[in-house]
Structure formats: C-alpha cells, structure tokens
Design a protein that fits this description.
Methyltransferase, Cobalt-precorrin-4 Transmethylase, Domain 2; 242 residues; five-stranded parallel β-sheet; single chain; alpha/beta; five-stranded mixed β-sheet; Cobalt-precorrin-4 Transmethylase, domain 1; 8 helices
Length: 242
C-alpha cells in the first residue's frame, strides 16, 4: 500500500524531475486538482484518474487513501513542491490511523525558486514565502507576517497574491511593506511560470502596488540591496566582486 505525494514543478514537462516521472510511472492511480491533472495529461494518459475541484483537498486525499487501501499504488500530485503549500501535510494527517499505508513525498521545483530563476537571482540572501490566501489563514495573521518580514528587510516571495474575491490583497500587502521598505525597492512578478504563456515584469514596490496579478502569479519583493543588473533582478549575498 503506497502513496506518492508528487511535486511536478511549475507545469512544464521539462521541469518535472526524473524521480517524479518515475513515481508517476509506477502508480496505478493519479489523484489531483483538475487543473493540475490537465497540465500533465500527456504523461498520465494511461492511468486511472481521481480529480476534484479546488477546496476539495481533503476529499481528494481520502479518495486516494481508499484506492491505496485496495492495494493500488497512488500518486497524489501537486504543482510546485508537494511539501510547500502542497498536499503532503494533509496526506500525512489523514493517514495517521493508517500506518500500513506507506507515504513517499517526491519534491518538485516550488514557485519561489522557478519564479526567481525567471526574474534573475533575487533569493540569494535571506527570504520568506508568504501566501496571501486567507482561505485557511486569518488575514490578521497574514498582515502580521508580511509587516514583520518587511521590517526585518527580508526578501519576500508572495504566493496567491490576488483573486476575484481578493482583488486588493496585493495592494494591502504592499501598503504594509511600504511602512518599512522604500517605494523604490526593486520587485518582480512572473505569471504562468514554466508554461507557454510565461511572462514577467520588473518594477518598484510603489509600482507593484498598482499591478494587476492573479493566482497564477508569483511576486518577489527585494530587500534594500536588491538591484537590477542587465534587466534581471539580483539580491547580492555580500561577496566582494570588484
């Protein structure tokens, strides 16, 4: 009885690790959010599929566990890394009473790393990743995390920066950071990382406040040393290069 919890990266087949591909190959059943299943449909076309929409994560994991208890090898897929805002945690929680089910987490390239690579090298020094989604975290707690990270002059990577119901959340986060960061702080954001529609923008924190982004966008706000070098965002580590 085995469940792989597989991070398949940002979406492009060339950014799926060989270990992840092997886990998918060994699995009889693939479970995942419908959008993510569609992203890798050519790889898993001969597999039994379990698909559920957003907000049905617990139901999806339970369905995967039920298949595993029947003796099937199952892969629960997550975009990015399965252990970073992914499905690994809830799978372990639900399997607490099923120690007979073996769980193997297969890491993938999370959006912070793949987005940073598109922008240049903004995560070379200390950074923090914060999701602006308040579906499972109270907004008051998110606000505190954002402001404290800004006060500490961390590079900040924002997941889920905006949605139809949260259209002004990025603006709110920028306002919190502007209490501690200069409006000229260098920033960038990437949409559809690793996919055909990939696009990125460099801007200042003041400009980022007015940016139109969505759930497919990853945002990176630099620290006081972050700069633009030949059109790319770079945060120096402190090496003496001159």
């Amino acid at each position: 009885m085995k469940i792989y919890v597989v991070g398949f990266g940002p979406g492009g087949e060339d950014q799926i690790t060989p270990r992840a591909l092997e886990a998918l190959r060994k699995s009889d059943v693939i479970a995942g959010y419908s959008l993510y299943v569609d992203l890798i449909k050519d790889i898993i076309k001969d597999k039994k599929l379990i698909q559920t929409p957003m907000k049905k994560e617990v139901q999806r994991c339970q369905m995967a566990i039920d298949e595993a208890l029947k003796g099937q090898t199952v892969a629960m897929i997550s975009s990015g890394d399965a252990g970073v805002y992914g499905m690994a945690g809830v799978m372990y929680e639900l399997c607490e009473n099923h120690p007979e089910v073996e769980i193997e987490v297969v890491p993938g390239i999370t959006a912070a790393c793949s987005g940073a690579a598109v922008l240049g090298a903004p995560l070379i020094h200390d950074f923090v990743v914060i999701s602006l989604s308040d579906l499972m975290t109270p907004w008051e707690k998110i606000e505190k995390r954002v402001e404290l990270a800004a006060e500490a002059d961390m590079v900040v990577c924002l997941y889920n920066p905006s949605s139809v119901k949260r259209a002004d959340y990025l603006q709110k986060a920028c306002d919190l950071m502007l209490r501690h960061k200069d409006s000229e702080t260098k920033c960038g954001y990437v949409r559809n990382i690793g996919r055909d529609e990939e696009e990125y923008t460099l801007c200042t924190l003041g400009e980022l406040r007015e940016a139109k982004v969505d759930m497919f966008t990853t945002v990176i706000i630099g620290n006081e040393t972050t700069k633009v070098i030949n059109g790319k965002l770079v945060t120096p580590r402190g090496y003496k290069v001159n």
